[in-house]
Amino acid sequence: MADCERSYLDSIEKRYADNAAVHIVLDDITESRLPGEHFDFVLCTEVVEHISDSRAAFLHIARILKPEGILVLSTPQRYSFLELTARVALSRWLIWFTRLIYREPVSEMGHINLMTATTVEAQLSVAGLRVIARHKGGLYLPGIAEFLGTFGQRLAAQLESLIRNTWLDGILWTQYYIARRSRRTDQSAYRQGGQ
User: Fold this and answer.
1) How far apart are CA 158 and CA 71, in angstroms?
2) CATH number, domain at 48?
3) For the whole model, what pTM was predicted?
4) What percent of the chain has pLDDT over 90?
5) What are phi and psi of 28, to 5 degrees?
6) Domain count of the fold of the chain
């Protein structure tokens, strides 16, 4: 497991202290020092929306993957109902109301790099990662999730199944990808830092 936050890794280290199969590494995905062509599989879930340079992250992921290695990626969609609602609900004008509704300390999500599917797939391709499967899922409807309980969950799930794989699927919350590293990847891109 790798992360750029030492405090996060400290808690993981404590949890898996007795598990020799878990290796904890302090590393920045946009400037990774992990060895090249070393990993068969990389799981990068809900990460790239928190960093400004996803291009560099994808280049480094491709660099550390073995040829034909697999990346599993998830990231929120730029125009999902959840992200659009969060921009309003977490604004300085309305965050007090959001906290009142949820009755807990609500804070910013830290999403600084929300991308459309077109952008994600283009950046993966430039990095030498070929998408072999994709999926979009998760429908958030303001008010439904908060006030209608189980009925609201069932309603959202039914609507999600109708929206998925249509021109409206950009409003679903998360996009998921499985990508394979090409056998031949331009190593000069890694040396140039993804520029």
Assistant:
1) 29
2) 3.40.50.150
3) 0.81
4) 53
5) -105, 120
6) 1
